[in-house]
Amino acid sequence: MSALGPDPAFVLVRPQMGENIGAAARAMLNFGLTRMRVVEPRDGWPNPAAVAMASGAGRILDGASVHDTVAEAVGDCDFVFATTARSRELTKPIVSPERAMEMARIMQAEGKKVAVLFGPERTGLENPDVAVANAIITVPVNPEFASLNLAQCVLLTAYEWRRHTANITHEVLSMPTTEMATVIEVDKLAEHYEARLEEFGFFFPETKAEVMKIALRNMWSRMPLTRQDVQMMHGMLRQFLRQMKT
Q: Is the pLDDT assigned to residue 157 strictly greater than 90?
């Protein structure tokens, strides 16, 4: 297997509004993509509105290449995806953004160059544009309202690329001011409650007391308590006892 090829090139075909080009650039950089190509931008290039909207992602626009045709824009690529929500009279594989970027990652690992075509805001890609592609990406949107903004489509596709290439932690517990309680700390909390409950006659009848204590211990061990939680639970019990004595 050869060295990794470049990241996919996102090709904006005949984009109409500079703001959408800038928003697409932001979406690309959000997920680590930097290779933008622009085909026949309606308002020319460079586009001041695109620069203003890019807001921190100007480097994507600075590095963007401008082309006269789709064929020219993807001429150096080994595989091309076309994004479209409309049915076509063309025989091509149709894949989800997730599957497409999975395929793109595999091809990148093989040293191949991949491009993704995005159509103009008003009409989307035309059949001659799609004919250049090897496969079609269709987002599983509401069929009664399938139209996506250019930047939205870029964002969805870029996100899927990131999911297949980055080491993503899907769940994490945020503990900015504390850490998880140790087994001993939880055990001391259990002892504290058990002793006080014993005083109040909670473990009744006596024949069931041992089972109830084990169930209570089991409950404490199941709870993902932090040290702050343990301290609070100790304090709550102490406060209850003080109030009962007054």
A: yes
